[in-house]
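Researcher: We're teaching a course module on how sequence relates to structure. For the next exercise, students receive a sequence and then see the predicted structure as tokens, so they can try to spot secondary structure elements on their own. Here is the exercise chain.
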Amino acid sequence: MSAPAAAAASAVLDFDDILVEIGEFGRFQRRNYLLICLPVLFAAANSLSYVFTAGSPTYRCYVPECDKAEDAEYGAVWVSIAVPGSWSKRGQFTPSTCERFVTNRSHFASASESGSSWPLDQCSAANFTAETERCHQFVYGSLERTIVQQWGMQCQENLWKLAFVGTMHFAGLVVGTALSGYLADRYGRKHIFLFCIVFMALTGVAQALSWDYISFLVFALLNAVGTSGVYPLAFIIGVEMVGPRMREMSSIVLNYFYAVGEALLGLSFFLPHWRQLQLALSLPPLICVAYFWLVPESVRWLLARNRREQAGVIIRRAAKVNRRDISVELMASFKQQELEAETGSEAEGGLDVQKDDKIWLAIKKVVSSHILMARYAILLFIWAVNAIVYYGLSLNATSLSGNKYLNFALVCLVEIPGYSLAWLFLRRFGRRMALSGSLLLCSITCVASGFVTLAQGDWIPCQTGIKSRHSWSCANWLVVTLFLVGKLGITSSFAVIYTFTAEMMPTVIRSGGVGVMSTFARFGAMLAPFVPLLASYYDPLPLLLFGSLSLVAGLLSLLLPETFNRKLPDTVEEAIALGK
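Model: And here is the predicted structure for the students to work with:
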């Protein structure tokens, strides 16, 4: 094909122009978009299921001298005299998990000699000494049953085992995110998307059937590998199937599904046994096997791989479902260019070799471009900051007290206003300002929350004159409010960065590029659990660190090019030209 002819063909086959003809978000796209969003619900739930399946339930030592054998109560009024523990500033007692006070044998013996029994509702300090001892029977604060009870992992020496489940989960996310991105660029979005869904479901079922702690760890790792590919690939498929004006909608609404999927874990209150919960999250996604016949391959990926005829079939079907007409000349060009692409591929040694060459050639061009390398380095930093702050704020949400299932659901659902804020920012201010504004909002609220935390001890209760063990000071309410606003900001930033990154990547490496960024963010997330430990040196230090990182990331984002209402770059040259 001559250069003028190739240029003409490229112009004809610009998919953004085709979408204008067949509809940027018609019935065909809406149906398929809904289908790809449904597995995201279960991917989100699976990604956090270990919080409940491997969580540590509330428990204390069983005290046979005071507890009723058949109906032991965790929060009995006498617990503080029989079990050591700590009192909160609000007057709430938290008993130790694995220690109890030693029984005063002399007092018990004298009671027995006098013929009197030890009243279960009148346990007093005289019944126990100040010495403590380990216990091996426990009373639980709820019906929740996790792997702690399943395999006897109570007490301090086993906490690392529960934390290690999270480590294995993040390790699986790192491996899976990187692999799914590369494989999707090479073998197609649809096939790898379906593989990740089925793999997530099967390994989730295997996790529910685990026979010991080691098998649980292995299946948790494998489940994370599958789970990690579902959301990114659903995002890529969604972005690539719609027109320029609908891209931000496709990414933001997908995040709504993700937030609802996370919040669904709050319903584990009704499934207190960890095996039941894991099965409930893993079996339904198996229905998605039908997607092999229902969901089409990404047209952009097909065009980038010179599969013009297959792309033409999907475009004709989309035009028919959307009740749009498309020119005969345009459709005839697909077959002609497919034949020309096959001829050119055979001359170079085969189509598969050409496909691999395209990816590696694009990577070499990116590495050799100082503009793109600087741009992607900034993106890597912003992705890592997003992960550290997002997960760190969740871990630092100690001011939110009450029912843990309800709290968990609310903390997840508060992300929906954050995604809505991102949608508004994306449409009103463009990608760059939306990202910078979200990060700066998070920065301001985190720093403010840190200083309020520092001054919290000087505040008095908002409802003066009312004495309550659970009275909250005005500072508590202010900290919670600032925390929620900060969570909104970082949630908005996370939503924007996905769209922004995808729009800066050339088509041939878009999925892999987003996968690399997401993988790097997972390494940042691994640091998040350690940040709260900084509070032992200076109470507001974690929040001040989150605010500082968000500030730097917000300022660096202003150096990135604007991609709002721009054509998605198909080549590396087009990606470089975004900044011009």
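Model: If you want an answer key for the exercise: The CA atoms of residues 37 and 138 lie 43 Å apart. Confidence is low (pLDDT under 50) at residues 1-12, 457-472.
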